[in-house]
Amino acid sequence: QVQLVESGEGLVQPGGSLRLSCTASGFTFSSYSMSWYRQVPGKERELVASISRTGITTYYIDSVKGRFTISRDNAKNTVYLQMNSLKREDTAVYYCNAGFRGAGVFHDWGQGTQVTVSS
After folding, report:
1. Using the 8-state DSSP alphabet, how is residue 93 labeled?
2. What is the bridge-based pairing of β-strands 46-51 and 34-39?
3. Rounded distance, CA 47 to CA 97, Å?
4. Is 60 helix (H, G, I), strand (E, B) or coil?
5. Distances (CA, A) of 85 to 11, 15, 39, 90, 103
6. What's the rounded Cα separation, in Å, for the pair 95 and 79?
7. How many Cα atoms are found within 13 Å in the side-chain-facing hemisphere of 84?
């Protein structure tokens, strides 16, 4: 079955950096675009960034453009999110799923990884 395992959680100060990883199994990773999402309590999960199957095409929401970088390693079935210049409003639980700019292909989400930006 599909498994998505996010890691890299941390507490960082504003302006700091963090790198998240998502390792996938149960499907042919290289055949799917992948995306990162985030969710804060009481709000809907929102798309953060997407990357195409080959990694050539990427998409970012406006609020993270120039600060976040999505990348992937198809040999390791892993997608990454490098987050720089973090802001308090980036605090959320971050998830990955398949798809490009969509709501997520797979019904089963991982446990997510907590990112807290605070001084």
Report:
1. E
2. antiparallel
3. 10
4. strand
5. 13, 4, 19, 10, 26
6. 11
7. 6
pLDDT value, residue 87: 98
Strand order in the sheet with 113-117: 10-12, 113-117, 92-98, 34-39, 46-51, 58-60
Q: What is the mean pLDDT of each run of 10 residues along the chain (119 residues)?
A: 96 98 97 98 96 97 98 98 98 97 91 97
Q: Give the pLDDT of residue 74.
A: 98
DSSP state of 77: T
Q: How far apart are CA 89 and CA 24, in angstroms?
A: 27
Cα–Cα distance measured from residue 40 to residue 69, given in angstroms and rounded to the nearest whole number: 21
Instruction: Give the pLDDT of residue 115.
Output: 98
